[in-house]
Design brief:
EC number: 1.2.1.16, 1.2.1.20, 1.2.1.79
Helix content: 25-40%
Keywords: Oxidoreductase
Bound molecules: adenosine-5'-diphosphate
Oligomer: single chain
InterPro entries: Ald_DH/histidinol_DH, Ald_DH_C, Ald_DH_CS_CYS, Ald_DH_CS_GLU, Ald_DH_N, Aldehyde_DH_dom, Aldehyde_DH_Superfamily, Succ_semiAld_DH
Largest sheet: 7 strands, mixed
Low-confidence stretches: none
Strand content: 15-25%
Distance between the termini: 66 Å
Family: Belongs to the aldehyde dehydrogenase family.
Organism: Salipiger abyssi
Shape: globular
Length: about 475
């Protein structure tokens, strides 16, 4: 892997704690390339005590960092952003090697990840308080916004770079110090971020990366250590619930970006070609492994067959392969368990009457976790994907008759992260956008992620928002000062 990089020094395997590179007290753990099945790195496996040391360092560094002016923090973050963009290709290569997504998507993720650092650096200057007219003649009321303190993150493998920057950037901008525990499948991207943070002059202790093979140990340390004041998590609803329970003992502030089960609705007045293009981007980006990927595709009866045909033709053209090879559209899945889940969803749908019109979930040749993309028609609400996120390249097509029917179907889930629909009628667009119980609605588009908008879910998809000027609020406390004059 190092030979593919212009700057091999970005490829490190140690933890980054208090501005120093450290080995793990628990030894190392392996990182595998999901496209080839070979081990690409042995990464420091930090013990719970070492995570505690990182928290101590963050705690000690935070007050000084918070005393920097917003502009000073902005300048450091800007340097970090510039370094990420200057090393975009290398960071993308590292990301593809450990995660599998096609290189162009990985390079795109680096730009997306960096955009949070740029955006929140700018926001650091705009953490405005408030002056409220007093409630008595001698009273003056001021509201200040202050950093929460030490924030700790646990993030997944599907966006090894951006899920960290989306949290660390607003935290650092607000004046918090940060301890990041990357997914054990994809720690190299996080470590590379630390290399660049160090080069950017982010002070020791302000940004720490603690790789560990034991997520639950780190999760406990984060929740039980009284120096941590905020936990920010992206991952499954299941693990989110565990962390919320653990965080309850210290009444710790929590941001949770949890699972989704995104509906993608095509109405009969939609531009079908645009809808197919949107469905491809939305369903197959990262090979279906995003929490905003379309999981249930609802198509109105009048255009159902036409949409299915067009989607089939488009998916049939997609090339499955190693993300580092030119022309790859769909990389491997992250693990063999991920493949089994997709196969289980296909088998379940078939047993309940669905028809496979493309693919079928066969594993493709080679050592990597490759599976063919699949489309099924005749999907119904009793099939597994109606309640459970597939997280892979399976597109189930449901047929619906009326607007009311599809709204009811789309909302029939415990999740509420992203939703999408294609339609032209303006009153329909308004009505459906209002009726969908989701934190995000894409109208005539399959791509909704940007640093300037608030990303987050309702219902069991999460708490809090990431991105936009709202994103920094999750790392700030309000303090009300009442003055008698
Ligand atoms: P995903 O399906 O996206 O991997 P998970 O919720 O399983 O979702 O994992 C998200 C992150 O949470 C990963 O980094 C994983 O290692 C971590 N994790 C898993 N179990 C726990 C736990 N009990 N406590 C804290 N973190 C956990």
């Amino acid at each position: 892997l190092a030979t593919l990089l212009d700057d091999p020094s970005l490829l490190k395997t140690q933890g980054y704690v208090n501005g120093a590179w450290i080995d793990g007290d628990t030894g190392t753990f392996e990182v595998t390339n999901p496209a080839r099945g070979d081990v690409i790195a042995e990464v420091a496996d930090l013990s719970r005590a070492q995570v505690g040391t990182a928290i101590d360092a963050a705690y000690a560094a935070q007050k000084e960092w918070a005393s920097w002016t917003g502009k000073e923090r902005a300048q450091a973050l800007r340097k970090w952003f510039d370094l990420m963009m200057a090393n975009q290709k290398d960071l993308g290569t590292i990301l593809t090697a450990e995660q599998g997504k096609p290189l162009n998507e990985a390079v795109g993720e680096i730009a997306y990840g960096a955009s949070f650092i740029e955006f929140f650096g700018e926001e650091a200057k705009r953490v405005y308080g408030e002056t409220i007219p007093g409630h008595q003649r001698d009273k003056r009321i001021t509201v200040m916004k202050q950093p929460i303190g030490v924030a700790a993150s646990i993030t997944p493998w599907n966006f090894p770079n951006a899920m960290i920057t989306r949290k660390a950037a607003p935290a650092l901008a607000a004046g918090c110090a940060f301890v990041a525990r990357p997914a054990s499948e994809t720690p190299l991207s996080a470590i590379a971020l630390a290399v660049l943070a160090e080069r950017a002059g982010i002070p020791a202790g302000v940004f720490n990366v603690v790789p560990s093979s034991s997520a639950s140990e780190v999760g406990k340390e984060f929740c039980e250590n009284p120096k941590v004041r905020k936990i920010t998590f992206t991952g499954s609803t299941e693990v989110g619930r565990i962390l919320l329970r653990q965080a309850a003992d210290q009444v710790m502030k929590c941001s949770m970006e949890l699972g989704g089960n995104a509906p993608f609705i095509v109405f009969d007045d939609a531009d079908l070609d645009a809808a197919v293009e949107g469905a491809i981007m939305c369903k197959f980006r990262n090979n279906g492994q995003t929490c905003v990927c379309a999981n249930r595709i609802y198509v109105q009866a009048g255009v159902y067959d036409a949409f299915a045909e067009k989607l089939k033709a488009a998916v049939a053209r997609m090339k499955v392969g190693d993300g580092l090879e030119e022309g790859t559209d769909l990389g491997p899945l992250i693990t063999t368990e991920a493949i089994e889940k997709v196969q289980q969803h296909i088998a379940d749908a078939k047993s309940k009457g669905a028809e496979v019109i493309l693919g079928g979930g066969d594993v493709l040749q080679g050592a990597g976790n490759f599976i063919e993309p699949t489309i099924v028609t005749g999907a119904t609400r009793d099939m597994l994907f109606s309640t459970d996120e597939t997280f892979g390249p399976l597109a189930p097509l449901f047929k619906f008759e009326t607007e009311d029917d599809v709204i009811e179907l789309a909302n029939d889930t415990i999740f509420g992260l992203a939703s999408y629909f294609y339609a032209k009628d303006l009153s329909r667009v308004y009505k459906v956008a209002e009726a969908l119980e989701y934190g995000i609605v894409g109208v005539n588009t399959g791509i909704i992620s940007t640093e300037v908008a608030p990303f987050g879910g309702v219902k069991q998809s999460g708490l809090g928002r990431e991105g936009s000027h709202h994103g920094i609020e999750d790392f700030l406390e309000m303090k009300y000062v009442c003055m008698s004059v």
